[in-house]
Amino acid sequence: MGIRISARGLRMAFNRRTVFQGIDFSVGNGETLLVAGRNGSGKSTLVKILCGLLTPTGGKVEMTGEKPLDAHAWRGHIGLVAPYLQVYDEFSAIENLRLTMALRGLLSDDGAHRSLLERLALDVRRSDPVRGFSSGMKQRLKYALALSHQPSVLVLDEPMANLDSDGTMIVRSIMEEQRRRGILVVATNDLSDVSAVQTRVDLDDRR
Questions:
Q1: Closest to 174 (Cα-Cα) out of 186, 188, 187
Q2: Measured between alpha carbons, how far is 204 from 36 in angstroms, rounded to an integer?
Q3: What contacts 91, CB < 8 A, 6 or more positions away?
Q4: What is the pLDDT of residues 20-51, one digit of tens each?
Q5: For residue 89, how many other CB atoms are within 10 A of its CB?
Q6: For residue 42, what are the contacts with CB-CB under 8 A and spacing of at least 6?
Q7: Distance between CA atoms of 59 and 137, rounded to whole angstroms?
Q8: Helices 93-103 and 110-119 sit at what angle, rounded to 10 degrees?
Q9: CB atoms within 10 A of CB 55
């Protein structure tokens, strides 16, 4: 199913301070949306709005397939990787995947989980408690959790955080694959993180 995300006149304010305003865009399958701006410009805030985690102060954002999707269906199409998301340290990598699928109301497939962990160079540690993982390994596990339900929309907030060169190569491959099969949303202040961009929202001048 073709998915499109559209925003019209988005505005967000906290305690009378305008974070951004006048945000308009539309992206569909095979396209990348880049959300750029300095630290504190509102990139993570906009990401949370797109994922249905925050309600904007003004304007509207919607996701449509054959028809507009409600909030519950909307979230089911999104995979999110972000610094503020946590993994469960007391569980193993594969247990984190099983729990994530259960929370989404989906059946787990350990074979598919292992394939995903192998792609992210985590399969050899799949049964180890995550508390023993490095920050880069935890970042790669976040990608596994975001991809486990094969989302139509992959949203990445600071996608290369804590990754070494090998992890960066893996993530760039994932980003390119997502761009071909669905929608890729990337929020970053490092423009080298993204190669091909169809739509760009720069938040530095949107207050």
A1: 186
A2: 8
A3: 99, 129, 130
A4: 999 999 999 999 999 999 988 999 999 999 99
A5: 12
A6: 12, 19, 20, 203, 206
A7: 38
A8: 120
A9: 10
Distance CA 96, CA 83 (A): 17
Handedness of CA 136, 142, 145, 150 (dihedral sign): negative
Q: Give the C-alpha separation, 152 to 4, whole Å.
A: 10
Max Cα–Cα distance, the chain, nearest Å: 50
CB atoms under 10 Å from CB of 57, counted, come to: 15
Phi, psi (rounded to 5 degrees) for 145: -65, -40
The values of phi and psi at residue 161, to 5°, are -55, 130
Global pTM reads 0.93
Sequence-ordered strand ranges (E) for 40-191: 58-64, 78-81, 153-157, 183-187
Q: Specify the length of the chain in residues.
A: 207
**What digits encode the pLDDT tens for the residues 54-97?**
999 999 999 888 777 777 777 889 999 999 999 999 999 999 99
CB contact at 8 A, 49 and 12: yes
